[in-house]
């Protein structure tokens, strides 16, 4: 064995690191199983490379994970290089125990920081992307500037977005992530049943899905925990360390969340309601509470114009002859008061356009 690289980060960056020709950990485990069961041997070419992806460890038993070196030993003479993406803590310790430090290299993905360009992008384009929430931008910019200047000293910035559904909370998180670069990491904790959520957060078997494993795979340093207030109450203590120190760990994995922006959302109307729902220990770990206001009539009209324009661009020339742009716009602006939020407006407009098109299609065929 000449080189072992332990890489922690997303798949798309790991793929840039590995050689063009390699054997996967899944293949090697399957060949070892065949040898053990049927006595037949598999020979690898010399100077081979072995690649293990994050998902690969799910295919090995607990015993094999704890004695991972035994897997490498089977083809030790043929394998020159090993590349492992997001190995468990057990695998990492096993490798460091049995192999020389000189051949082990540990790499961590470098996430896009809050740069000057990102700060200017948020300032310039926020109002075009998030309608009716200019005050949110004014509260976000100091937080981003603090990270840009390193005044947070690497600590995560923990923010609560609260207010009614469909007024821009999730879209704002996406916009921040887009401005920094990388797809938003989003988890809706309310989707888990109580025990499922605890297992997901605290970890069980290395083969099971877990929050830490998903965090290691993330592409962005912006993390959205949707409907945080609806998560199982006993799960909140799992976030104490990450909110305080930027470290999240379970029995199988450990992830450093340095300089992350962690955004939680709630549909409650006031910080007092959120405090009662979450409890003081987690409530007072938030750096900022930012309220999203209900949409004004002016904002609703702006959204109507934006949505109709976007949907109209998707139509082909023939469809544009059927859907009358100005007529559609006037219809919705006249009814703007009755609309609730962005999702409500977009849903109705899309349905209306599709209805016009399908009726025309049926009448002419």
From TrEMBL:
GO CC term, one of those recorded: cytoplasm
Keywords carried by this UniProt record: ATP-binding, Nucleotide-binding
Domain AAA+ ATPase span(s) in chain numbering: 155-296
InterPro entries: AAA+_ATPase, ATPase_AAA_core, ClpA/B, ClpA_ClpB, P-loop_NTPase
Domain of life: Bacteria
A GO MF term: ATP hydrolysis activity
Record-level GO BP terms: cellular response to heat
Coiled-coil ranges from the UniProt annotation: none
Protein name as annotated: AAA family ATPase
Organism from which the protein derives: Bacillus anthracis
């Amino acid at each position: 064995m000449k080189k072992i690289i332990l890489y922690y980060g997303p798949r798309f960056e790991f793929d840039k690191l590995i050689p063009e020709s390699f054997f996967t950990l899944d293949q090697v485990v399957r060949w070892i199983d065949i040898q053990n069961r049927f006595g037949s041997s598999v020979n690898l070419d010399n100077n081979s490379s072995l690649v293990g992806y994050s998902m690969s460890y799910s295919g090995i038993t607990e015993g094999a994970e704890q004695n991972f070196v035994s897997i490498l030993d089977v083809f030790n003479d043929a394998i020159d290089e090993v590349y492992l993406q997001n190995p468990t803590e057990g695998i990492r310790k096993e490798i460091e125990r049995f192999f020389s430090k000189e051949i082990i290299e540990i790499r961590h993905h470098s996430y896009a920081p809050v740069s000057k360009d990102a700060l200017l992008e948020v300032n310039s384009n926020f109002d075009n992307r998030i309608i009716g929430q200019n005050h949110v931008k004014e509260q976000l910019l100091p937080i981003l500037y603090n990270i840009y200047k390193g005044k947070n000293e690497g600590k995560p910035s923990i923010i609560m977005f609260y207010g009614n559904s469909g007024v821009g909370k999730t879209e704002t998180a996406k916009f921040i992530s887009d401005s920094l670069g990388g797809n938003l990491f989003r988890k809706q904790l309310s989707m888990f049943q109580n025990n499922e959520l605890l297992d997901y957060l605290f970890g069980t078997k290395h083969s099971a899905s877990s929050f830490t494993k998903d965090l290691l795979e993330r592409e962005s340093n912006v993390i959205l925990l949707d409907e945080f207030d609806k998560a199982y109450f006993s799960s909140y203590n799992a976030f104490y360390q990450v909110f305080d120190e930027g470290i999240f760990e379970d029995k199988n994995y450990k992830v450093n969340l340095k300089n992350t922006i962690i955004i939680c959302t709630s549909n409650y109307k006031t910080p007092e309601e959120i405090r009662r729902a979450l409890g003081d220990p987690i409530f007072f770990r938030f750096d900022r509470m930012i309220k999203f206001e209900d949409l004004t009539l002016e904002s609703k009209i702006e959204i109507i114009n934006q949505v109709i324009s976007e949907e109209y661009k998707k139509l082909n020339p023939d469809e544009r002859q059927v859907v009358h742009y100005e007529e559609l716009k006037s219809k919705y602006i006249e009814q703007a008061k009755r609309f609730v939020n962005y999702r409500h407006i977009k849903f109705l407009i899309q349905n209306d356009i599709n209805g016009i098109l399908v009726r025309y299609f049926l009448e002419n065929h």
